[in-house]
Amino acid sequence: MRFHSLLLGIAALGSMASGAAIVAREEKKSAPPEPPSTKYFHEPGRNDLTGHYDVRYFKEVVEYDERLDTLTHLAKAWLQTTAKEGIETWIAHGTLLGWWWSGNILPWDWDLDVQMSANTLTMIGEKYNMTRHHYTSEDGTVQREYLLDVNPWIWQRVRGDGNNIIDARWVDVRNGLYIDITGIAETNPETPGILNCKNYHRYKPEDIWPLRDTMFEGVPAKIPYNFDEILMKEYKAKALVVTEYEGHRWNTHTKTWDRAPEVPAGRQGESLLKTVREPEKYSTVESGGFFYNAFRLLHWW
Ligand SMILES: *[C@@H]1O[C@H](CO)[C@@H](O)[C@H](O)[C@H]1NC(C)=O
Is pTM, for the whole model, over 0.90? Predict the structure, then answer.
């Protein structure tokens, strides 16, 4: 009897041990090698040429003129649609820099940037997600269709794994070029009154509001109240005075960035340093040139 229960005990221990081993093996076998990516928006590639298209509508890298035409109408349509629907938004980042120079997009840009408050973002997520918007240009010659796509990760207002820092996109469904839409919100209880996007750009509410009315690409638009400080912080003074950049030269007469093939292209920042002109090289003060813009800058301060 005693011997029998001992045997049973050993058998039970043995089966427990082997059972545990099997469970462990099975867990190991069934565990996926990598967790699936959380990324919501997808692009066909990661470089300058392929990283700025929505993969669902991408066919090929578009030529210079088509890119500019696409971005111009993307901007006009966004501004008109949001004004009509009462969606508060303002231009940001490189698009704001383009406004500062000429009231237009920077012709070397690949995409455009706008911002909104996190509350507005939540609202468009509920009311406008996946809506399509038809657009006809003022002269009636251009017809386009745009998709407003809102990232489900908008509820997460911190950077997280970095895959979803873009909150929404306004996409040209002909070729996949888009406007990036990001929200700003208070996220850190230790720094009340500081708004930030998921990519760590920080603003005070009084830097943004009351928004200023202006024109962009010939259409009524809004910009942050302290646009000059915001630009200085993000791009440094050089971006506001350099007149040769990314294969373009600032035309002081027409106040436009003209194509200049002899101006080296390169990554932003690097080429800015390479092509920045030193003030002493200028012998005359030209309107719209270095001194003009340096003056504008001081004036705004
Ligand atoms: C928007 O719609 C897409 C497609 O149905 C969905 O995957 C996504 O989660 C939606 N976004 C929001 C904010 O609900």
Answer: no
